[in-house]
Amino acid sequence: MIKRKYYLDVLRILSIFAVIVIHICNKGFTYTFNGFEWNVSNVYNSIFRFCIPVFVMISGALMLNNDKEITLKKLYLKNALHLVIAFVIWAIIYGLIKSIGTGFSISSFIQNFGCVHLWFIPMIVGLYVITPLLRKITADEKATKYFVIVSLVFTFLIPAVLSIPQLNAVKDYYDNSVFFHFTLGYVSYYVLGYYLDQQFKMKKELPISIIVFIVGALLMAFGTRYLSIKNGELSTFLCDNFFSIPTFLMSIGIFIFFKNIIKDEFKNEKVAKGLVFVSNNCFGIYIIHVLVFKYIFEPIGFSFASFNPIFSTLIVAISTFVVSLLITVVLKWIPGLKKFIL
To answer: DSSP for 273-308?
Structure first.
């Protein structure tokens, strides 16, 4: 039996909280350009941008571990099918909520079907589909390292270099001539999560991970501000890009940090059970949190700028997290809902 790694639970909880913070603070970018609210949003967005990459890395650490037996039947009928059903049901729910708010009709329902944050589910399902192939790679240590190196070069390094304006002609040629996709996108983080969990070792991991995270956050915050001021409007090149160098640095930094400070065993059993409980409900929190802050909190004026956004962002995020958790727990008590939608 594989021993539970509590640091993955901590990272999962922190990542869903980071998602909530980003969704709440993004409203600040609609305020006066480079004003107080705008800069608060930039700082929070920069610090918490690791959210989705770390989610994917956690999945990779768990799903690509060959010590854990995963049959095709289990992969499709348990893992993938559950996500597909949840996606369809919640896309309908959000579609109904949005279309009712604008005057319900079939056409408005079709136009409002789904919700922006649900994109994460099809992406994870896609990773599950190629998991059997990737597990062949992670079964071999050298092949895993090779895959990670290639993915780092093609997913992060080359796009970063080609973003230099003077290389636009080279970028156009590269984009239209080099069709290399196997190690691109979220599969990079997926395999990277397994690699960092199982194989990665270096001296002074803890202090280095802290430095790497801070460097990534500073590059994100100051880089976004510099590019935005230069362009005269918000630049999303860094702040809305999960494959930017700053996001990559923050993601690996925080992953390695918690791997080093959270032990596999807790002396306090109640703390361990509490972590597992919240971690097991994170998918429900992710699904429901938009409903809570956008359709419950915002209409009553409880949002990003209810008061000083430095404080309101975190207070609204914590409240959203707690209420979403409570709703998830209640829904799971209803027979059948746990299996199909949470």
So the answer is: HHHHHHHHTHHHHHHHHHHHIIIIIGGGT-STTSS-
